[in-house]
Amino acid sequence: LETTGLADPGPIISTFWLDPELCSDIFLDVWFSGVVTVVDAKNGLSDLNKNPIQGISVPVRQVALSDVILLNKTDTVVKEALENIYSKVKSINSSALIMKTSFSKVNLDKILDLGAYSGIKENRIKHLINEVATMEMKEHIEDSVCTVTLKPNVVLSKESIDRFMELILWREDLKSKKGGDVEIIRAKGVINTGKEYLMLQCVHGTYDLLLINPEEDVQSTLILIGRNLEKDTMMDLLNKCIAETNIS
């Protein structure tokens, strides 16, 4: 499904991801696999740097919700410009696979059958977790969008994750330490409950936990992409939810 350059993919993702019957009944053998976004290496930086009057711009949302990003027209820019747009895209969504292309030439295996919203391809999930967890998260300026990784050192329960997701998604007064409104665009990860593994998927204000069977032991890891995210603030909130559910 190809959208326009001005489309917010969030509502489309939630429609196909949360309603698989829609795909099977209407579109026969069609299912939601993931989001691929093409970013113009020459003009993309100016689009991503534009500040909307309110909220998050559509170009930034498109990058934040992507599973694979094609940084295209790399043949039209100098090395420094390419590094700048690459760094900008990476700062917004450090969990996506970013490929530099010219004329959008790419191996189709890299953009088809991603399985980004299913529990089938655990190797992809493990690769994603390892990549993001090893990145140094930099402080971000007010109203910027970035990726934050949380790795609690305790076993998590489904109840604690439910409470945490409800707070960060639906609590309207949630603020950063600088007073900015916190907004989650995308969240994903793997939850180790001590008895089973759950894959977290969240987009457009809706989340789901899917039972998966990884080949080896995996530490619980949450990846949050959004606005005004502070790693220590999110970690404190998660620990609070863990403590509250353990008491109850």
TrEMBL record:
UniProt keyword list: Chaperone, GTP-binding, Hydrolase, Nucleotide-binding, Zinc
MF annotations from Gene Ontology: GTP binding; hydrolase activity
Catalytic activity: GTP + H2O = GDP + phosphate + H(+)
Source taxon at top rank: Eukaryota
Entries under InterPro entries matching the protein: CobW-likC_sf, CobW-like_C, CobW/HypB/UreG_nucleotide-bd, P-loop_NTPase, Zinc-reg_GTPase_activator
SUPFAM superfamilies: Hypothetical protein YjiA, C-terminal domain (SSF90002), P-loop containing nucleoside triphosphate hydrolases (SSF52540)
All copies of domain CobW C-terminal, residue ranges: 145-242
SMART domains per UniProt: CobW_C
Keyword Transmembrane helix: no
Annotated GO CC locations: cytoplasm
PANTHER family: COBW-RELATED, ZINC-REGULATED GTPASE METALLOPROTEIN ACTIVATOR 1A-RELATED
Family: Belongs to the SIMIBI class G3E GTPase family. ZNG1 subfamily.
Full protein name: Putative cobalamin synthesis protein
